[in-house]
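Now produce a polypeptide, keeping tokens residue-aligned:
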Amino acid sequence: MKAPFLLLFLLINIASHGQKLSGTWQGACSTTDASNPILISTSWIYLDMSIVKGMIDGKMRHENSLEGQYYIYDIVGKVLENGHLEINETRIGLKSKNAVPADKQQFDFEYDPKKAYLFGKSKDGKSTLTLYRAAFNISENTASILPINQLAKFQQDLADGLSSPEKRLEELRAFKFEPIYFEYDKDIIQAQYESYLIEMVRMVKSHSDLRILITGHTDSDGSEAYNINLSKRRAASLERFFEAHGLQKSRVEIDFKGENEPIDRNDTNLGKQKNRRVDFRFI
């Protein structure tokens, strides 16, 4: 399989989001085989660039995991008037036993400020790339910078809709817990809360050291024993929801308080409605 890079156009409007893109980026490149369009190989790619007064230079590295090769390129370019980055690369080394020529290709990249990824696609439609900021320099002498199993994990992160590593702590700090409420004597999750709960799942998946505690509550109607059981059922319904949306059971803990920890009065309908809830916190 041939290395896919000779010319890159990174479609990034720097002026609109004010991002400083100098530094090292790493990520996944998925490429279809010309002889078998259904077959897709995925490999690591690294881009190390410096942008000074609109001029770009640096290096790029592409790892071909199937053939045990990696390619090193010098890159030069400039920031265009429309805010795009135009990068030309020249291969300076092929690290493998059997050298093969590289094809000229063009790629369009667009920066996503919300998730802090560079998303790219080749002009011929055969390759797609997703890059995120890295904390190291490109090596020209190491056979593999990151293991292939870590690449599979990165692909799973993308499938789960996770943001780039640099963005995740920021998202966690900004995340606000809110209780969800239940109808009278019910433990069914109302549809209006599903998008919020899915976002909570994404937060937990984004941080391997996080678990979530679910605590069920009720109003004061009914016996204390009945309400303990009802609050347990409410918490359990959230546990099942999280598991159904890909969160491992080991990362979820439930608690249930019945009517014992109200947040409002139980002698009004509005107060009772607020007490029929489930609360959350990270642990």
